[in-house]
Amino acid sequence: MTSIPVGNSPRTVDVNEITNKIYVANNDGTVSVIDGTTNTVIDTITTVNNSRGIAVNEITNRIYVSGGQLIQQILDYNQEPR
Hints:
Blueprint: E1 10-16, E2 21-26, E3 30-35, E4 40-46, E5 53-56, E6 62-66, E7 71-76
Antiparallel strand pairs: 1-2, 2-3, 3-4, 5-6, 6-7
């Protein structure tokens, strides 16, 4: 098991097994994107504060971020890391 530093108060995690990317919803209003091959954070996306949930569609690579019971933001992550 490897520990990877991400944003403040990580809440939930989802994985796109096709792209081998791991998405972590952090309570500080960010999503950390981790390369599953190198186990390093390759991007940090600003999103909604108090993120409580995250889900990724493996086919479209859309990331759904919730802040409570509703989906508050949908991110298209079809880009190269910044």
